[in-house]
Design goal:
about 160 residues; mainly beta; Immunoglobulin-like; five-stranded mixed beta sheet; about 15% helix
């Protein structure tokens, strides 16, 4: 009888330890994925349950500033505990540039702010006894219909005297 009781106690302890190990020893792992939305790739992370994802280096995208990682419409806080798989998406803001118009001795010098990839309209300028030949970026004449702004630039008016 003693052996039966001892065997029952040992079996109970073994089953209890096995059950505790199965439920508490195996830590759940979750995947945090990053959709850079056209920016440079960011690798997914495997995160143990109850831990935090590590904020990755910001991706890059030509003509845009990185505005953060979002879970739906909410910016993701990397001090949040991960409790399941998460898919985060990059949010981007177009870069803005300054176009400086130098009237080159005429009236109407000004600056305009333009978003990356947009065209810009020429300002109205004048110079007594001169006609405007065009606006130049260095030695190249600017085409206001097709040329797009991708950096800060200065366009300089070129004038021709009336005959």
């Amino acid at each position: 009888m003693k052996n039966k009781n001892l065997l029952a106690v040992i079996t109970f302890l073994f089953v209890t330890i096995l059950m505790l190990c199965l439920f508490s020893c195996g830590t759940e792992q979750y995947t945090v994925t990053f959709d850079a939305d056209g920016g440079s790739a960011v690798e997914a992370q495997i995160v143990e349950e109850g831990k935090n994802a590590v904020k990755p280096q910001a991706p890059t995208k030509e003509g845009y500033n990185f505005a953060g990682w979002f879970n739906g419409d909410t910016e993701y806080k990397f001090d949040s505990i991960v409790g399941g798989d998460i898919a985060l998406k990059a949010k981007w803001e177009k870069k803005a540039y300054t176009v400086t118009f130098d009237a080159n001795g005429g009236n109407g010098s000004t600056e305009k702010t333009v978003q990356h990839g947009d065209t810009v309209k020429a300002p109205m300028v004048s110079k007594p006894s001169y006609s405007l030949v065009g606006w130049f970026n260095g030695d190249t004449q600017w085409n206001f219909k097709t040329d797009t702004v991708t950096e800060d630039i200065t366009l300089v008016a070129k004038w021709e005297a009336f005959n």
